[in-house]
Amino acid sequence: MLVGRRASDLVVIGGVVLAVLYALRPDAPAGQVISAVAGLGTVAGQLAGLWLNRPADRLPWVLLVLASMSFLGGMAFRPWAVEQTGVLSFTADFFALTGYALASLALVVMLRRRVGVQRHAVVDGIIVALGAGLIATEFLALPAARVGDRPDLVSLMAGLYPLWDIVILLLVLNLGFSTAVRLASFRFLALAIVCLFIGDTGYAVIGARGELTGSALLDLPFLVGFSMLAAATLHPSMAEMAHIRQRPVQAWSAVRLSLMVPALAAPLVVMLSVNGNSSDNLALTLATGGLLAALVFRSVSAVRSNADIQRGLVFRATHDPLTGLPNRDLLTQEVGEMLAAGRPDGLWLLYLDLDGFKLVNDHWGHEVGDLLLIEVSQRLSRLTRDRTVCARIAGDEFVIADHGQAADAEAMAARIQEELARPIELPGIELVAVASIGIAPLTDQRNAESLLRDADLAMYRAKAEGRGRARVFDAAMRQTVRERVEIELALRQAVQRNQLWLSYQPLVETRTGRVVGAEALIRWTHPVRGPISPVEFIPVAEETGLIDQIGSFVLEESLRQMALWRDEGLLPETFYMSVNASARQLRDHSLRRKIADGLRVYRLGADRLNLEITESILIGDNAQVMDVLSGLRGLGIGLSVDDFGTGYSSLSYLSRFPVTTVKIDRAFVTGLGVDPGDEAIVRAVVAMSAALHLGVIAEGVETEQQRDALIGLDVARGQGWLWGKAVGHAEFAEKHLRPEQAGADGTPWTPPVQQHRGLGVTRP
C-alpha cells in the first residue's frame, strides 16, 4: 500500500513538472513530445494501478483506462485532423467524444454499484448541473453554434464539449453527495474531471468566438488531469471504492449550498445578460423550469422522508423489533380501546409463555431462539383474526386479546397448543414449542393493566401445574399473589434479622446405620404464621435474589457448626456436611474463594463439605457453571446431583461435569419392594454410577423394606425418616454424634474412598 501511495504522489508531481515544461515549450515538436509522454504515462500508470491494487470491481477502472486511450488518440490525431477536410477533420473529435462517453459510463457504473441511486443526491446534482448547464449553454454552446462562416457540424462540435463536461460534473457530484467518506482515489478522480472541465471551457470560449484552435497553453489542464487519472488508479484506496459507505440523507449544508446557490442564481444572471434571442429565451425558460421542478421535488422528497422517519420511529416505539408484533405499550393502548368500546360480547386475554425457552437459548444459541420466536409469532398471527390483537410483550411471552367469552378464549388456547405442537424446522434442528397459557376473561377489571396481570397470574398457575397447560384466572389467584408478596417482605426481614436457622438430617451407611454425614436444611419460623416450608419460600428467594444471602448463610453456618462439634470432640473423622447450592451461586466465580476462606477460618478440610446441585443446572453448554464446578472439585469438595432421575437424567452431563455422587430421588425409593419398575430404575442408576466411579445415596428411605432393597442393590448410603428426621444442631448431636451412638467397637463407620477419574482427588 505504501508503494501505491508513493507512486500516486510521484505521478502527480511528474504531471505538474510536465505541465511546467509544456508551458515553457508549448510549440511543436517539444510540446507534442511532452503531451505524448503525459498521455502514455497516464495509461501506463492506470494499468499499473489495476495490477497492483486488484480492485474487486474492475469494470469502471477499465473504462477509465479506455477513456484515457481515447483522449490520447484525440491528442495524437489533432494536428493531422485540422489539416483535413470533410469527415476526416472530425477524427480527433471522434476520439475525444468517445473518451467522454467512456468516462461517463465509468462514473455511472461506479455510482450504481458503490452507492446506488439516491434521490436527494441526484436532485442536488441536477440543480447544480442545470445552473452550470444554463451558463455553459448561454455563453458557450449557443454562441459557438451561431458562428455562421463554418459548417453546422463544426459549430455543433464546438458547443458539445462543455455540455459533456456538465454531464460528467453531474455524475461526480452525485458520487460525492452520496458517499460518507471521500477517499484519496475519489479526490484524484474529481480533480481530473475538474481539469478536463477547465480545459474544455477554455476551448469553448475560443469556440464561441468562432475559433477552432488557439494557444497550446490551453492543453495545460488536460496534462494535469491526465496525471490525476493515473494517481487515482495507482492509489491503494481505489480498491476500497467498491465498499464506499453511503451517506444518509443530508440537509443543505454550507458545502452543498456553496455549489447550489450559484446554480440557482444562474437564471437571473442569464436574464440580465441575454438580448432577447428566441433560443436564449428557450434555454432560459427550460433551465428555470427545471430548477423550479427540482427544488419542488427536493422539498416534497424531504417532507416525505421526514414523514417516513416519523412513521418508522412510531412503529419502532410500538412494535417488537424481532417479530414485528405490537409491544406491551401498544397492546395496553389497544386493549384499553377495546374496553372503552363496551361491547356486550365481552373481552378476554391469553397470556402465553414458552416452556423451556431458556434451554433453547442456552443449548443452541440466541440465533436459534430468535428464529423460534419468529416462527411462533407467525403461527399465532395466522390463527388470529384481523381485529384480534396479537403482541409480544417480553422475551418468550405473547398476549392475544379479542372480544368474546371465556369459552372462546379456551377454544383459542386449544388451537394454539395444537398449532405449536407441529414441529418447527430450524437450521440443523427440529423443535416442538410448548406453551403455558393463562386466560383472563373480563370480569370486574376495567383497565388493560389489571386484565393483563390476571392473565399473567393464570399463566404462572398453568406453568406450576406442568408444561403445556392452560388455566383460566380466578379471584383466588390474587390471594396467592398477596401471600407471595407478604412472604417476600417477611423473608427479607427474616434475612436481615437472622431469623433463619438450620436443621440437620443424618446421612447413614445402609448396612450398619452409622452416621457418616448430615444434610444441612434451611428452616424459617415466622413470628406470626409459624413454620414456613422451604418449598414455599425458596422459590421466592430465587426470584428476588435473596437466595444469594441465604446460600451464604447456609454455607457459613454449616462450617461453623462442624467446627463447634469438632471442638466438643463430637465430630467423627470422616463426617461431612452436605449443603444445597443454588443456580445463582454456581454462576458466581468467587464461590470457590468464599468456600476456601470459610474452610481456612474454621480449620476444616475440603473433604468435610459436599455441595448438592440440581440436574437442571447441568443442562446445556454452560461454560460458566463448568468453570465454577471444576474449581470446587479442584479444591477437593464433593459434588452431588440431587433428585437424580426426575429431570433430564443423562450420561452425557454426568461424564462432562465433575460430579462425585448421585442422589436417587425419593419417588423411586418409595416403590422399592412394591414396584418392579422403580427397582429396575434404581438398579440402572447404580450400574451407571459404578461405571462412572460415582457414589450413590438414596433419599426418602422410610421403611426397612426399602432399606433392605437398597442393600440388595448395593446402595451404600441412605437418607430418610427411617434413620431420623431433620432436627436442630443440639438434638442432632445428642442423637447421632455422642460416643454411645457409635458402633459396637466404639468407632464410627468409614466410607470407602473413591477416585474420581481425571481429577486425582479422593473423597469418601
From TrEMBL:
Residues 345-475 form the GGDEF domain. Residues 741-764 are annotated as: Disordered. The chain crosses the membrane at residues 7-24, 30-52, 59-81, 87-109, 121-141, 161-181, 188-206, 212-234, 255-276. Keywords: Membrane, Transmembrane, Transmembrane helix. Residues 484-740 form the EAL domain. InterPro entries: Biofilm_reg_signaling, EAL_dom, EAL_sf, GGDEF_dom, Nucleotide_cyclase, Rev_trsase/Diguanyl_cyclase. PROSITE patterns: EAL, GGDEF. The keyword Transmembrane helix applies. CDD domains: EAL, GGDEF. This is EAL domain-containing protein. The lineage of its organism: Bacteria, Bacillati, Actinomycetota, Actinomycetes, Kineosporiales.
